[in-house]
Specification:
alpha/beta; six-stranded mixed β-sheet; about 250 residues; binds NADP nicotinamide-adenine-dinucleotide phosphate; 8 helices; about 35% helix; single chain
Length: about 250
């Protein structure tokens, strides 16, 4: 059986093994490594292909030949060992978030998209927003646009949470008060645990379009599975796996 898995530092709560079990017949192990173990694992680890997560999405780049998408995103979340032993690095988070936006039915074109947080997930959201013709504005605790001057952005049409605020076990927290943004059409939260964050529950109460991060997680895994297997999977499998994961 083809050996795949996930490289990261702390992986205890990962949903990826369950998602990949629905996508293909390869094995999918969790490879928890400390920073000083990563290089040896990449060179000598017993895997055919892996996903990469926090905090190693940039660390692995020097060891890989990069796809155009990985170069464009400046991070790698999928690595495939080539027949000659070298590593090819790709990024499927872009496809994951793009798929989440499409599924939501929200249009980004010409609209101000407020993106909370300035980490790796935020960079993915900025890239997709720009490519969809939206106007991304990153709200960062320390940036020019921050939580003290939110009233600058009352024309925001979409709000995306790319911070961990509201994630389990801090379910009761929300990163912003949605009353600052009277023109909002939708709120997308990249968090998938819990399924309904406080932010999404607030948005639901306002009658906005909402989506949690489970769709993105499944969609990025589907594109990764295509790279693992070297074959296309039908787009319908995103919804199939999403529904199965929702039940679990
Ligand atoms: P990260 O780098 O740890 O954090 C992202 C940013 O959030 C930070 O750079 C910081 O931005 C802000 N932040 C962190 N702690 C905060 C706090 N206490 N209050 C306010 N802002 C805070 O994480 P990431 O990898 O970008 O991921 C962000 C979130 O997206 C996580 O919840 C992750 O689970 C989720 N995610 C989901 C998917 C998916 O497939 N659904 C994929 C990737 C990530 P500033 O310092 O600029 O404020």
């Amino acid at each position: 059986m083809m050996k795949c898995g996930l490289l990261g530092r702390k992986l205890g709560h990962s949903y990826s093994p369950q998602i990949h079990a629905h996508l293909g017949t390869y094995s999918y192990d969790l490879f928890e490594k400390e920073p000083d173990e990563v290089e040896d694992f990449l060179r000598n680890g017993d895997f055919a292909a892996i996903n990469v997560t926090i905090p190693y999405k940039k660390t692995v780049m020097p060891y890989c030949r990069l796809t155009e998408r990985a170069k464009y995103m400046g991070s790698v979340n999928t690595i495939i060992r080539q027949p000659d032993g070298t590593l090819l690095g790709h990024n499927t988070d872009y496809f994951g978030f793009l798929s989440m936006v499409k599924k939501s039915g929200l249009s980004f074109s010409g609209k101000k998209v407020l993106i909370l947080g300035s980490g790796g997930a935020s960079a993915t959201v900025v890239a997709v927003t720009e490519d969809l013709g939206g106007i991304p504005v990153v709200i960062s605790r320390t940036g020019e646009n921050n939580y003290q001057n939110l009233c600058r952005h009352e024309d925001g049409a979409v709000l995306v949470n790319a911070t961990p605020v509201g994630m389990y076990p801090n379910n009761g927290l929300s990163p912003v008060d949605l009353n600052y943004f009277p023109h909002l059409e939708g709120v997308l939260d990249l968090i998938y645990n819990p399924a309904r964050t406080k932010l999404l529950m607030d948005a639901d109460r306002l009658g906005l379009i909402t989506s949690n991060g489970l769709w993105m997680l499944v969609a990025q895994a589907k594109e990764a599975a295509e790279w693992f297997l070297g074959q296309k999977l039908p787009d319908t499998c995103i919804e199939d796996v999403y529904l199965k994961m929702q039940k679990q």
